[in-house]
Amino acid sequence: xxxxxxxxxxxxxxxxxxxxxxxxxxxxxxxxxxxxxxxxxxxxxxxxxxxxxxxxxxxxxxxxxxxxxxxxxxxxxxxxxxxxxxxxxxxxxxxxxxxxxxxxxxxxxxxxxxxxxxxxxxxxxxxxxxxxxxxxxxxxxxxxxxxxxxxxxxxxxxxxxxxxxxxxxxxxxxxxxxxxxxxxxxxxxxxxxxxxxxxxxxxxxxxxxxxxxxxxxxxxxxxxxxxxxxxxxxxxxxxxxxxxxxxxxxxxxxxxxxxxxxxxxxxxxxxxxxxxxx
Length: 278
Ligand SMILES: O=C(O)C(=O)Cc1ccccc1
What we know:
This protein is of the alpha/beta class. The chain has three domains: 90 residues, 3-Layer(aba) Sandwich (D-Maltodextrin-Binding Protein, domain 2); 76 residues, Periplasmic binding protein-like II (D-Maltodextrin-Binding Protein, domain 2, 3-Layer(aba) Sandwich), CATH 3.40.190.10; 83 residues, ACT domain (Alpha-Beta Plaits), CATH 3.30.70.260. 28% of the residues lie in helices and 36% in strands. It is built from nine helices and 15 strands. Strands 1, 2, 3, 4, 5, 11, 12, 13, 14 and 15 form a ten-stranded mixed beta sheet that branches. It has a five-stranded mixed beta sheet with strand order 8-7-9-6-10. Strand 1, helix 1 and strand 2 form a beta-alpha-beta unit. The two termini are 23 Å apart. Bound molecules: 3-phenylpyruvic acid.
């Protein structure tokens, strides 16, 4: 089975993917969009992409593609600890630019402001792509933020360890596919959840309250609600909602029916387990 992930090798997504699918063929993709497209076209059976970080919050691209790719579902969520290091070419001693994935640059923002204020910062498609670029360009005065496996694989030295701003740094990754399935893994289960994509009926007072009350009076515990722009004009949003309580089929299906009856558009993205990786 082929599994796509946000690559190249030694990205955090690859570290997560290889813990979930250690016997499968892992296919690196250079963007989150390419991962979704590979699943949609059937080039791969599943893909793993980052969804949310405990310091920086939601990876908005992932949320947008979950909205846009109407046939894609979530099969599992995995949570992995994240440690960022500053990496430099072994033959270089200084740098005036730091490159990495925007989430990594943001997770290290205060450390960079305090210690490397004079270095420019540049976004790369992943931390591993940044590390690879540093390795391939010893003539450039650049450093990368990436993990220790990237340092090893791309033969870079670690200039400063653990530069993320907060000690408890975790990222959630999701496994996506075209089938409605709940992936069973051997890792520790953190809980079960259900993800929904909800678009409100036309703007009116109390619209969101009406939607939330559907869950409230059924005692369905929401663990996340995030709004993103629909890109159809200012003030138009969709909502990504996670229900953390047990998904009782009858009660839950009634809830979805009630949401539809008040004019909301609802898509069930998946009912699945959340696991903790090492
Ligand atoms: O860039 C990577 O290595 C990724 O897999 C995305 C990411 C970036 C920062 C923290 C977690 C995941």
